[in-house]
């Protein structure tokens, strides 16, 4: 098997550990392969990839798009990656899971439809690669305040660099269930 999938305390949210094969020349990691990933529960037809570059202390999120699942990988650097369950009716609604993803540990985070996502950079910089199951549509996107006290993310940095847009997102309790990341 070329991938190991670890369950998190939140149903449907997985930490993925691809197998790394290497020798003195370097290494190879399969960051996605349909059969092994879908067999392990990482399900979705990925249709768009994005790459972001951020410097130390940058915090992005919490973002979501209706109907979109996401697989997050760090190519270089290290981030604290966060997924928040925003599925109306879920027993873990409003709970978050956070983990370290890095270019060294090759771990990935798979978020099914119904999760908000954010991360902060804890290394000098980080290059983050996202695979998404739906193309970006501005009319389907939303956001939640990164410091929403009801969610209570324990970010590992102080004084993060947050965009003006992310500072203006509402708290989760201020968002209608119809506006959350459910199937359109």
Short characterization:
Helix content is 5%, strand content 44%. The protein has two helices and eleven strands; from the N terminus they run E-E-E-E-H-E-E-E-E-E-E-E-H. It has helices spanning 34-39, 164-167; strands at 3-7, 14-18, 20-23, 26-29, 48-55, 59-65, 70-85, 96-102, 108-111, 115-132, 141-143.
For the structure shown, list the relevant keywords.
single chain, 11 strands, 184 residues, 44% strand, two-stranded antiparallel ribbon, globular, 9-stranded antiparallel β-sheet, mainly beta, 2 helices
Notes on the structure:
There is one protein chain. With 184 residues, the protein is mainly β. Helices cover 5% and strands 44% of the residues. It has 2 helices and 11 strands, in the order E-E-E-E-H-E-E-E-E-E-E-E-H. It has helices at residues 34-39, 164-167, and strands at residues 3-7, 14-18, 20-23, 26-29, 48-55, 59-65, 70-85, 96-102, 108-111, 115-132, 141-143. Strands 1, 2, 5, 6, 7, 8, 9, 10 and 11 form a 9-stranded antiparallel beta sheet that branches. A hairpin with a 6-residue loop joins strand 1 (3-7) and strand 2. The radius of gyration is 16 Å and the shape is globular. The model has no long low-confidence stretch (mean pLDDT 92).
